[in-house]
Amino acid sequence: MAFVKDFVWKSGMSVEELVSALGSVGFQSVELDKASRIIVKMKESGAKVFLTFTSNMATSGLRGFFAQLAAMRIPDIMVTTVGSIEEDMMRSFGEKFAIGDFRPDDFALYEEGVNRVGNIYVSNRSYENFESKVKPMLEKLYARKKVWPVSEMLTEIGLALNDESSILYQAAKNGIPIFCPAITDGALGFHLFMFQQDHPDFVVDVVKDFANILFATSQDEKKGAICLGGGVSKHYAIFSCLLNGGLDYAVYMTTAHATSGSMSGATTSEAKSWGKIKDDSDVATVIGDVTITFPLAMIKALEELKRKGVLK
Amino acid sequence: MAFVKDFVWKSGMSVEELVSALGSVGFQSVELDKASRIIVKMKESGAKVFLTFTSNMATSGLRGFFAQLAAMRIPDIMVTTVGSIEEDMMRSFGEKFAIGDFRPDDFALYEEGVNRVGNIYVSNRSYENFESKVKPMLEKLYARKKVWPVSEMLTEIGLALNDESSILYQAAKNGIPIFCPAITDGALGFHLFMFQQDHPDFVVDVVKDFANILFATSQDEKKGAICLGGGVSKHYAIFSCLLNGGLDYAVYMTTAHATSGSMSGATTSEAKSWGKIKDDSDVATVIGDVTITFPLAMIKALEELKRKGVLK
Amino acid sequence: MAFVKDFVWKSGMSVEELVSALGSVGFQSVELDKASRIIVKMKESGAKVFLTFTSNMATSGLRGFFAQLAAMRIPDIMVTTVGSIEEDMMRSFGEKFAIGDFRPDDFALYEEGVNRVGNIYVSNRSYENFESKVKPMLEKLYARKKVWPVSEMLTEIGLALNDESSILYQAAKNGIPIFCPAITDGALGFHLFMFQQDHPDFVVDVVKDFANILFATSQDEKKGAICLGGGVSKHYAIFSCLLNGGLDYAVYMTTAHATSGSMSGATTSEAKSWGKIKDDSDVATVIGDVTITFPLAMIKALEELKRKGVLK
Amino acid sequence: MAFVKDFVWKSGMSVEELVSALGSVGFQSVELDKASRIIVKMKESGAKVFLTFTSNMATSGLRGFFAQLAAMRIPDIMVTTVGSIEEDMMRSFGEKFAIGDFRPDDFALYEEGVNRVGNIYVSNRSYENFESKVKPMLEKLYARKKVWPVSEMLTEIGLALNDESSILYQAAKNGIPIFCPAITDGALGFHLFMFQQDHPDFVVDVVKDFANILFATSQDEKKGAICLGGGVSKHYAIFSCLLNGGLDYAVYMTTAHATSGSMSGATTSEAKSWGKIKDDSDVATVIGDVTITFPLAMIKALEELKRKGVLK
Fold first, then answer.
1. What residues have CB less than 8 Å from D157, skipping those under 6 apart?
2. What is the interface size between A and D, counted as CB pairs within 8 Å?
3. What is residue A259's three-state secondary structure?
4. Which of A184, C160, D189, D238 is spaced 20 to 30 A from A217 at the CA atom?
């Protein structure tokens, strides 16, 4: 039986030491360290690992971390929403997002052409530049074939970005498919629509992409999921695993709570009713802002995986 | 200037009287009454009204209310996720969902073939019956044409359900398109995939459907949104309005908070940075479980709209 | 087994009809109706009923409702923090609290002498008037005796207020003690301190008041608690019941979640580990803003208690 | 203007490096780094620093960290609830608290004599041992004088504990008063009551202690507050500062949100309406579990203060 241990700071403390110590502190700290240990277990077991995240996380500086994780092949499959795709591309095109306030004068921002995502500001100009860069990309894709499953399209876009800091680029380069179940829900959707106006036989095939995510894992393989935030990204990963026999490992990190019955707040316990997870030592739900909790849990896991020679 | 008024119960109190009184109580009560008044404003102004909701809400008894609202043409456009579509159809096929607990033995539920959504239980059998009913529907659609934009497909499915309590049926019957930006993220996605295996030229055209939501409103029209929960349902509605000049009225009801920068927690204030809303009297954000807050705000609005002769 | 039922609006719907219908909707709606039924059970069983609330609720219009409930002797014992005492008194002295915004220019408010509590504004003037009225009250108390247990002092103040809308007055008039475990944590604390400067033998005896809350119930009696929000108000009630054998019924209404281990978020399930509650049908935890959830659950209970002749 | 920077892991990363990098990530990460910088500012400015926390935090392993911070004289004044006092004492008496689950069988725990606080378990035996140790302590205090202001009593208890890991001991040894505005709200309250039964002239003087917290700072001094969680601990610190001209620096860390108007969720912006804070660079509100966020922000501040020679 584990007991609460007094936490004490030592000068120069590493993230790994901190997270280990937090494992004996209590409340969400315990879940955080457990999440870290489950990530290590997933990788050591050779499970196929899903990493899912919502678009605000790619708007944030976690973008670079997701790209780094892809470069190290931590995830085998990624799932996100189209905002992530757009913002990753914008950053590769040289755009900068400002750090602002959670409570500014929003109408003033509007008049300055600034769009707010929490305390991050994205200017209209970034969207305009995006438009000019996306069009020629779609032209090239179309020249090769008319019907594009989403993840295959994203792989091609990723390779074209040629930016080491890009999620899409690193995913493409390392053979990690990115799924995006609501590809039209954003600026990219608008540009796909404009393109289709001129090229009526251009099709984005979401049904074909369902086959792709389904066949990305098999019944026989172990499967794990690290779900950051909720929504369709989380559900698409879990659901495709369910069809293949269920998850063996699951880490959910979110600010949402289970009490409203939403997918964002659905816990790893609820997941047990849908799948095959039996053992509490293989699941963890960490409540908190992912920009804080995910780097903590992941860094400790990376240090351990590196020491064990599991990191590529 | 409005002042706090002591709330006092009167026997036989109606919902309308309660919500009016809550407008002078404080905290979220004030926002609730404001939300109700903005819904009335939207309808009186003749604005095109978007109603968006997440799938757990259609799993709940709000399904009947959404169908009733569609029958009264309160919304002009609906946006949701595919879980809503599936669960609405299952209920029309005669399935029942049980009310259970938030903290059951989830592995025991799994072994009984029961899937949990918060405190609502859906049995595996409901999913199996769903499969047997969906296939012939897809056959009929395919016989008519090969390429289906999502909302057009949902209209046809709705008409086929022929169930007065169904959201899809009432929407179809009353000319209200239902948009679903992530149509493959669920059991329906799996059946679409299975169908496409046998009919390779069957296409669900999500890009074409972007045109449909875009042209569902115009720059000239007033536009309002009632967004229940967050995710892609909320974003798809707001984004399509943004492209048409922005929202004039917005009511957001959610359990999520603005502090994580997620779409689910994004407030109506943040929406001002993205659109054209100027006046605080035209927006409200109500924090709380939608199964409680939405009926309250909507019922008061309905009573008032009825008295004013605006209800159809 | 209960099943989800489609919710449908009927014109003129009463609060009681709404809450009954919500009992078959799902998520927090189910807990809300359950809470209402447990309140009825508590009263019918003849249990001693604790009502606890935090000070922001007395700042809101719930003040009038708490006074009304005291007049009807729904609670046998009340527990709150000193802000509630102060704000109830201010309102009895004729002060008005304005309804404002959650996101104003707070420094501007400061310069105008306005103090903000969420979206309720209390002016400095209200605090100044409070001072002038409290002093003579303390003089009178002191003239009678030097040592005052908190609840006895609050009874005397309540009687002196002579205002039918006052919580303190109705409690005093109806023999309901009000406990306040942190009596000095506010403006009243400051005035007690000022008074003690001039009257060094004046004592507020919090230890004696512990005896009062302990002897307010007995081991043999059934005990129930309705806890609105958390903090010391909630804990003081639960703890005193624990010493007397535990609670038989408990309804918790709060916005806090269990995941941080705080008293505010502690669930009725956690309470089982501390007490004697065995049966899930006798406890409910409703997550949501109390200004909305409490009137709903309480009104349905009142209508039912009235019909059954239990209301005084 | 600051911009979002891609976060990238480096092997062996220190906590200080992580928190610095998080300052450019977005959402709560930005607030976290800001909180850390404000703590440094507070200490460098020579401000009197209040540290407030709720009792669950002293139940957790943060107990050791609070003791360490007291030993380094980071806080000048501490405020907490009586649960903290009790649990700190129990740990000094040799009790161990187990780390358990958030969702156990609570009735089974009750039958085993285990009390749950989130995912921490405290056994009945710990409470029984507490009783046997507290009595002789009260005897000694009473032998010295009959009337005890709370903070003076806690200083004497702290010295008697003689345990380097104890919050009370380190506070007492380093001249840091601990205030506890609801001293009777727990097991200690019960033992004070039992003691008073036998010693009727024994008085715990909470009004006198108001003078102590008031005179712990002056109008002229700079004042800062680090408030972990909410409730009376937070309010008592802020209110006493308000009477002395207001806070110059404030860091709030909590899981509560501003939307319910509670003290736990009250933001540093709301604090501006009550005090004199003008500049946003001197306040931060971090939303998240304090067992994770506080060590992060504090460790970075400690490393910096050490380097600058400010640490004692």
1. D85, D89, D137, D141, D168, D172
2. 209
3. helix
4. A184
How far from each other are the two terminal CA atoms of chain D, in whole angstroms? 35
What is the C-alpha separation between A106 and B271, in angstroms, rounded? 8
**Which residues 6+ apart lie within 8 Å of C249 measured at CB?**
C38, C41, C42, C45, C47, C222, C223, C224, C225, C277, C282, C283
pLDDT of residue D276: 67
Label residue B276 by pLDDT band (50, 70, 90). Answer: low
Q: Distance, in angstroms, between A137 CA and closest chain D CA?
A: 24
Q: What is the pLDDT of residue A276?
A: 67
Contacts with D257 from chain B: Cβ below 8 Å:
257, 259, 287
Coil, strand or helix at A104: coil
Structure tokens at B20: 């009016």
CB contacts of B193 in chain A (<8 Å) are 207, 210-211, 214
Give me the residues of chain A with pLDDT under 70, please.
276
| Spatial distance between the Cα atoms of B2 and D122, rounded to a whole number of angstroms | 49
Instruction: List the single residue in B59, B165, B303 with the smallest CB-CB distance to C26.
Output: B59
Q: What angle do CA B297, B299, B302 make, to 5 degrees?
A: 110
Residue B243's H or E segment, with its range, is helix B231-243
* Neighbouring C-alpha atoms within 13 Å toward the C-beta of A105: 5
**Contact (CB, 8 A) for C52 and C236:** yes
d(CA D20, CA D35): 11
Catalytic residue among D140, D276, D306, D308: D276
Q: Does CATH place domain D33-95+131-307 in 3.40.910.10?
A: yes
Neighbours of chain C (3+ CB pairs under 8 A): A, B, D
**Cα–Cα distance for residue pair A183/A80, rounded to 1 Å:** 9
**Which CATH code of 3.40.910.10, 1.10.10.10, 3.40.50.2300, 3.40.630.10 fits the domain covering B48-93+125-293?**
3.40.910.10
What separation in angstroms does the CA of C170 have from each of A169, B110, C47, C173, D203? 69, 52, 20, 5, 30
Task: Give me the residues paired with residue D117 across strands.
Answer: D120
Answer whether D114 sits within 8 Å of C208, measured CB to CB: no
When scoring D195, D262, D279, D290 by the number of chain C Cβ atoms within 10 A, the one with the most, hence best to mutate, is D262
Q: How confident is the model at residue D312 (pLDDT cuts 50, 70, 90)?
A: confident
The CATH superfamily of C46-95+125-290 is Deoxyhypusine synthase (3.40.910.10)
Q: In whole angstroms, how far apart are CA B96 and each of A260, B85, B87, B92, C213?
A: 20, 15, 10, 10, 48
> Which 3 state secondary structure label does DSSP give D233?
helix
CB spacing of B289 vs C18 below 8 angstroms? no
Interval C134-170: pLDDT, tens: 999 999 999 999 999 999 999 999 999 999 999 999 9
Residues of B with CB below 8 A from C32's CB?
292
Q: How would DSSP label each residue in C137-181?
A: HHHHHHHH-SEEEHHHHHHHHHHHH--TT-HHHHHHHTT--EE-T
To the nearest 10 degrees (0 to 180), the angle between helices D82-92 and D187-198 is: 90
Q: Which fold has domain A48-93+128-289?
A: Deoxyhypusine Synthase (3.40.910)
Amino acid at C44: E
Q: Looking at the annotation, which residues of B are catalytic? A: 276
> Which runs of E-coded beta strand occur in B140-279?
147-149, 178-179, 203-205, 223-228, 249-254
Cα atoms in the Cβ-side hemisphere of radius 13 Å centred on C68: 15
Catalytic (active site) residue A173:
no
Distance from CA of C211 to the nearest CA of B (A): 33
| B53, B229 Cβ separation under 8 angstroms | yes
Confidence label for B77 from pLDDT (cuts 50, 70 and 90) = very high
The count of C-alpha atoms lying within 13 angstroms of the C-alpha of D193, restricted to the half-sphere facing its C-beta, is 21
- Which of B107, B183, B211 is closest, CB to CB, to A206? B183
